[in-house]
Design brief:
Radius of gyration of chain A: 26 Å
Number of strands of chain A: 13
Distance between the termini of chain A: 87 Å
Order of helices and strands of chain A: HHHHEHHEEHEEHEEHHEHEHEEHEE
Number of helices of chain A: 13
Largest interface: A-B, 63 and 62 residues
GO molecular function, one term (chains A, B): DNA binding
Structural class of chain A: alpha/beta
Largest sheet of chain A: 6 strands, parallel
Protein name (chains A, B): LacI family DNA-binding transcriptional regulator
InterPro entries (chains A, B): HTH_LacI, LacI/GalR-like_sensor, Lambda_DNA-bd_dom_sf, Peripla_BP_I
Organism (chains A, B): Microbacterium thalli
Strand order of the largest sheet of chain A: 2-1-3-4-5-12
Keywords (chains A, B): DNA-binding, Transcription, Transcription regulation
Oligomer: homodimer
DNA sequence: TTGTATGCGTTATCAA
DNA sequence: TTGATAACGCATACAA
């Protein structure tokens, strides 16, 4: 016996119909008489045929039903951020109706040999929180005719973007802090480059910041505090924020009276470090976050932060992908964050 | 001009070589003289050819470089669990060397039309934390010759498993609690069915529990407390645990003196609810978790829990996939958890 | 080291 | 409603 798996031609032959007819029975794209449908199904059953081979179907159709999602860093750190999870969730929902799923791709391959934008059979790509370095790769994918959507970043002229008012929003937080009278203020940023070390941002670092979201939020901060110091965390997590906070509060130098963090997770970490250092929030130090996520166990604190529409961003990205695949030319979409005053900010203490 | 994208044949023709030669230049599977390589590359450049089409290559090779990862529930809730993130991260690392990436597939499609095990061009599938219901689908994929690996579950006779000693480990926790003198003990479980409602588990529910990991851990608990009540959470998260905790501690009935939770996140939620209810941990109520993850902001508590090797499990799953794709017949692997005593358990108070 | 020939399994197009 | 035909773009076995 032949160990070869049955193909749709085998089924057609057994059923006594043309391959194209058998194909149509499975795809349902054309009406088929009940009689032939039954014959074909019977033959398929007899031969153990389980339906069209997705690989062959992709070649023929020119569609694989796969959307590549490129993000910086490891899965663990990317999905550790609730905003990212929500965004991805909405994205997955939005592309599901066209039968598409998400293929996880990592910028700057962590492990050699992994799949890339150029080698994976993707129909479209979504870049999320990637560094600008990735733009070169974009040329390749786009040259192939693969649509690209960029979330929180700039993919170049005609790459639709899903953007957030990072700069304006972060400026709001900075202004809030300034209006409370703070002058010794420090910005805590997310990593400015994939895999960058934590530490104070030098002017060079700052100029070389390649992650748009980091650069934009920092710019908003700089609009208000042009000369303040900025400290980059190793990633956007509570742990990373706590590490930064220990550096800020543990030293002998003058302590900041306010910290403007680029994410809620970082802010919570800083807050924990402040508590560890015996500082009261907001009396001794004011802290702002960014994202507007719910951090469990934070009570009685409620972070002063900027609430961003993460779900909507993901949905919009997915819908943009769908539109592009249908040949439309969707516009970029800008979303706005909402300032939410919590109880982690207060006027600067007169004696501090 | 023809808008058609150049193919490798076009490149070969322009370079004045055979298609197979041009192919080899890109795949590097066979030595090519420097001269022809240069010719081919020049031609490719001239035509704007960007390398082999991954879809065509998959058909020809019979490999797409895609591993489907099936999990229950939404992305957000799946990746909300640190154990899952670590496992997926390790899995991604382990399959990267063969050029494979992870395609996210959801059990019980949340949204109609999404990709499925049968329609996605996958080379292999990894089931993780799925319900037993999925086993039917397994027949289909396996019939296609697609290797399957199951993490924390049973895929049937010759499906390699990556297993954890859930029952034995959970029994250890239960014994610990029993040895501390507790008799009013409640188990808090993860959802016993995808999308199941939270609430007390009836005997019927318990019999119908289709998620192996839930059933196994519950069995371990039952080995020690055959008649204790069990309460199912809506997912494995702090919030879900807190909701359960409020139900346990908020009522008028007799309060449990110990809670055996099926995950650390649930345990932390229960702990928070206990605090809310004005109970002291561990004086008034003892709590155990499962997983051994680091939950930030939990200090001064250190959960009494079972530490499981999440990374190793993910790696093992990935390596098993690779072995299967190479035609080997790898064995299942069993991993063990380690009991870790924290400060969330204590002897039952004499007056309680 | 290069070229020739073939088929991977399907589906779109068109004509019957 | 069905069937014949022709790609889809590539990579391999084998011969030269």
């Amino acid at each position: 016996m032949n160990a070869r798996r049955p193909t749709i031609s085998d089924v057609a032959r057994t059923a006594g119909v043309a391959p194209s007819t058998a194909s149509v029975v499975f795809s349902g794209k054309t009406p088929v008489s009940e009689a032939t449908r039954a014959k074909v199904l019977a033959a398929a059953n007899e031969l153990g045929y389980l339906g069209p081979d997705p690989r062959a179907a992709s070649l023929r159709r020119g569609r694989s039903g796969i959307v590549g999602v490129v993000s910086g860093g490891r899965l663990g750190s990317v999905f550790g951020d609730p905003v990212m999870r929500i965004t991805m969730d909405a994205l997955a929902d939005a592309v599901a109706p066209i039968g598409a799923g998400l293929l996880l791709l990592r910028e700057g391959s962590v492990v050699a040999g992994g799949p890339t934008l150029m080698t994976a059979p993707i129909d479209a790509a979504v870049l999320i929180g990637c560094s600008g370095l990735l733009r070169e790769h974009l040329a390749g994918v786009r040259g192939r005719g693969i649509p690209v959507v960029v979330i929180e970043g700039d993919g170049g002229a005609d790459v639709p973007r899903i953007a957030l008012d990072n700069r304006e929003a972060q400026r709001l937080a900075a202004e809030h802090v300034r209006d409370l009278g703070h002058t010794r203020v420090v910005a805590v940023t997310m990593p400015f480059r994939w895999g960058s070390d934590p530490g104070w941002l030098s002017p060079d670092d700052e100029r070389a910041t390649s992650v748009d979201v980091v650069a934009d939020r920092l710019a908003g901060f700089r609009d208000v505090f042009p000369d303040a110091a900025a400290y980059a965390a190793v990633d956007s997590s509570i742990d990373a924020g706590a590490a930064v906070g220990r550096a800020l509060f543990g030293g002998d130098g003058p302590r900041p009276t306010a910290v403007v963090a680029q994410s809620d997770l970082l802010a919570v970490g800083v807050l924990r470090a402040a508590e560890e250092a015996g500082l009261r929030v907001p009396e001794d130090v004011s802290i702002t976050g960014f994202d507007g996520i719910v951090v469990d166990g934070l009570a009685p604190y409620e972070l002063t932060t900027l609430v961003q529409p993460a779900w909507e961003k993901g949905r919009a990205a997915g819908e943009t992908v769908v539109a592009l695949l249908e040949g439309d030319t969707p516009d970029s979409q800008w979303f706005t964050s909402t300032f939410r005053r919590g109880n982690t900010t207060a006027s600067v203490a007169s004696d501090s």
